[in-house]
Amino acid sequence: MFTMFQGARQRQAVFVDTVRSRLWPVPAIGVIAAVALGVALPQLDTALDARMPVTLAGYLFGGGADGAREVLAAIATSLMTVTSLTFSLTLVTLQLASSQYSPRLLRTFASDRFVQRTLALFLATFAYALTVLRTIRNAVDGSASFVPRISVTVAYLLAMASVLGLVLFLGHLVRQIRIETMLDHVSRDVIDTVCRTAAPLGDEPAFVPPLPRTRTHIIAARSSGFLTQVGEAALVAAAVDADAVVLVDRPVGSSIVANVPVALCWAAGPSSELDGDGLDSLRERVAGALHTGVERTATQDVGYGLRQLTDVAVRALSPGINDPTTAVHALQSCTAVLCELAGYRLGPRILRDEDDVARVVLTRPDLPELLDMVCTQPQIYGERDPLVMGSLLMLLRDLAWVVRQPEHRLAIADRCQRLRLSIAAQQFESSGRSGLERLMSQVDEALHQRWDLGNDSHAEGRQPR
């Protein structure tokens, strides 16, 4: 079933997001692997030293024990300095992103795989050099010296790779702090989230959420914080065992407070009731399936990415930054995301058991709610800028061409009317006002005419402007 398949994908996504959003797992794995390699390679040197082919030996380290120590010590010292520089540059980038764009972008930078792998390379090279250094021996009291030539050569190669990695890291960092790169990364996260949590229109039939036919019971939250994850399989199992229906009326990403109602439940049968130990067990299991955290994540939260994009636009419109061009770029990214979301079934999601009986209703934002979230604050803070208002109108125009459902068209028309009233109250120049009026007429045209995106001509013989 689609629900079970989506549940497996979401559990995998939760695990991957947990690992990716932290800076230490990949470097820690690199250090452990480097230590293991630093122990194993000297033993390989011992086994192959007497049988090393002359041709191969010519490419390996040819110095003595003191020279090997100096090389490894230089590598270890320089790599720790480079690691400190890399970490400092990363923190500066995080501070810039937080102050200039939005503090909600910090999680995006922390999950950057290139940064994680670069730190892993630097720390692994440092740990490997120290581990090999301990195996070098001078000739003392008749004992033979030992210089692990293969191991020292590998340390040299890792050092060269680290130098190349530093150069690539600096170039990557410059590219990552560009607003276009950040907006594209957030937009792709939103699309990935909706692909995991929603079905395309037409792939899943539309279901009407079940209504309570018996007395409802309140389920309170167990802890405070942001609702970051909903254990869908656990909720369905709990509802099946209690022969009940559960409605979670807080969407993922909302702020919840401990001991405050977040869900309702009622008996599935019209003549049965929930009470006693069965009700207590259901409440406990439902509360345990609602996971909270100190910050929102993009794993199941469709609106989180759009919140990030909108925050960038609002921050750019603040008097302290005053960068309307960045706000326009953010709104263009919102346009592309909303047009993509229009092809998916948003709104409340119904989870069914193996007998195809509706057991759980999850509250999710629909397209009109997401549209209001994207447009409301930029309209408030950018209503005096014709460039920003024009970007909002272009958003509505492009979205109007791709939406399929009547309620979505009504939401676009309502938002266009709000923009029309806001524009009428401003004292724009005649050229700017005429451009905005032309965009408003294009929104109306897109709303009231049907356009087949697969054909080359308009249904009435005219091309869209």
UniProtKB/TrEMBL annotation:
Keywords assigned: Membrane, Transmembrane, Transmembrane helix
A Pfam family annotated for this UniProt entry: DUF2254
Membrane spanning residue stretches: 21-41, 71-94, 114-133, 153-174
InterPro entries: DUF2254_membrane
Protein name as annotated: Membrane protein
